[in-house]
Design a protein that fits this description.
Strand content: 15-25%
Largest sheet: 9 strands, mixed
Number of helices: 12
Shape: globular
Helix content: 40-55%
Order of helices and strands: EHEHEHEHEHEHEEEEEHHHHEEEHH
Strand order of the largest sheet: 3-2-1-4-5-6-12-13-14
Structural class: alpha/beta
C-alpha cells in the first residue's frame, strides 16, 4: 500500500469512539503507516488497538501508548479528541473549564516533545477555545493549528439537500463562520442549490422564510440532535473531517470546508474561529468571509460570544492576559 508520507501521525484520545475512528480513517486514506494512538485509559486503548490490527492494513506500523512523552516525541501531525465528551443536556460551553485545562497541558506537551510539529487539529469542545488555549501554550505558529469547524457547514448542506430532494453535492458553497456551536453565523449568500443561489430561493414557495429559519435552527442544534438520537455525541463525522484536514495539509491540495483558525485582524482580536480558510503544505491561511450585511453582523455577534468565553478562561488562569501572550508564544 502506498502512503502519502512516512511522518508520524498521533491520535490523542485513541481509545474512544472518535479517536479509534480517526485511526481507521488515517490508514484507510493511506496518510501514513506511522500512526500512534494515545489514551490514558489503557483498556479502551488496547481494545481499539486490537480492532485496528484486525483490519490488517498492509504496511502499517501502528504504535499505542499511555505515555504522552512517548506518543508526542517525533510527531509531525496531531489530532486531539482528548477532552471530556458532550452529553445530553450539555452545551459545548459546559465543558469549558475542564477541557481548557486539558488543552493547556496539550500545548505545553507539544512545546516540550514536538515543537517542530507540522499541524495540529483540535476537535474537543468548545473547540474554538480549546484550540486557542493549545495554540498559545504550544509556541506553534498560528498557521500550524486548526480546529474542526466543518460540521456546521456540512450539516447545512445536508439539511438543504434533504429539503430540496437533491444529491448532497448538488448543494454547494455552504458556509458557517465564527464559533462552532449555537452562536455560529450561517451564511445563505454563498450557497447554491443545483447552481441556483440560495438567496433566490429563500422566501419563495420552494423555500419559505419560516422553513429556512427552521433549517438554520436545525444546523445550529445539529450536534445536540445527534446526542438525543444516538445517546452520545457524534463521532463518525468529526473523525472523518479531522483526518481529511490532515490529508489536505500533507497533500497540499487544500480542504473544501471552513477551518477554525487564529484571527487577529479584520476587526477581530486574538481569537480562534472559523473564517474562509485554505489548508496547504504550509498550513492554514485565512481571509475575511464575504457576505450580506446581516451575515457579517451575525459573524461579529459570534465573535463577541467567543470573546466572553476566552475572557472566562483568562479569568481561570488557564490563559495569560492578552498582553502577555507573546511572552508565552512569540508568534502571537
Amino acid at each position: 500500500m502506498a502512503y502519502l508520507t512516512e511522518d508520524k501521525i498521533v491520535i490523542l484520545g485513541a481509545g474512544g469512539a472518535i479517536g479509534s475512528n480517526m485511526m481507521q480513517a488515517a490508514l484507510t486514506l493511506g496518510l501514513s503507516p506511522n500512526v500512534c494512538g494515545y489514551d490514558p485509559f489503557e483498556p479502551g486503548l488496547k481494545g481499539a488497538a486490537e480492532e485496528i490490527y484486525h483490519c490488517a492494513f498492509p504496511g502499517a506500523r501502528l504504535t499505542w501508548t499511555t505515555d504522552i512523552a512517548e506518543a508526542l516525541t517525533g510527531a509531525k501531525y496531531i489530532i486531539s479528541s482528548g477532552g471530556a465528551p458532550r452529553k445530553d443536556g450539555m452545551t459545548r460551553e459546559d465543558l469549558l473549564k475542564g477541557n481548557a485545562q486539558i488543552a493547556e497541558q496539550l500545548g505545553k506537551d507539544i512545546k516540550t516533545y514536538c515543537p517542530d510539529l507540522k499541524f495540529l487539529v483540535v476537535i474537543f469542545n468548545p473547540a474554538d477555545i480549546t484550540g486557542l488555549v493549545a495554540l498559545v501554550h504550544s509556541g506553534l505558529h498560528p498557521s500550524k493549528v486548526g480546529t474542526l469547524a466543518a460540521l456546521d457547514s456540512t450539516r447545512l448542506q445536508t439539511a438543504l439537500a434533504q429539503h430540496f430532494g437533491v444529491a448532497q453535492d448538488d448543494v454547494t458553497g455552504c458556509r458557517t463562520y465564527g464559533g462552532h456551536g449555537e452562536m455560529m453565523a450561517v451564511f445563505a449568500s454563498t450557497a447554491r442549490v443545483q447552481g441556483t443561489p440560495l438567496t433566490e430561493l429563500i422566501g419563495t414557495d420552494k423555500l419559505p422564510q419560516e422553513t429556512w429559519d427552521k433549517i438554520r435552527g436545525h444546523v445550529s442544534q445539529g450536534g445536540k440532535a445527534i446526542i438525543q438520537l444516538r445517546g452520545r455525541s457524534s463521532f463518525q463525522s468529526p473523525a472523518h473531517q479531522s483526518v481529511k484536514m490532515i490529508q489536505g495539509v500533507i497533500e497540499g491540495q487544500g480542504y473544501p470546508w471552513p477551518v477554525g483558525g487564529y484571527v487577529n485582524g479584520y476587526g477581530f482580536e486574538k481569537i480562534m474561529m472559523a473564517m474562509e480558510t485554505s489548508l496547504t503544505a504550509d498550513g492554514l491561511s485565512l481571509s475575511m468571509p464575504e457576505g450580506l450585511p446581516e451575515e457579517i453582523e451575525a459573524l461579529k455577534a459570534s465573535y463577541q460570544h467567543l470573546v466572553k468565553l476566552r475572557d472566562e478562561v483568562i479569568g481561570m488562569g488557564v490563559l495569560p492576559p492578552l498582553d502577555q501572550w507573546s511572552s508565552v508564544n512569540p508568534h502571537l
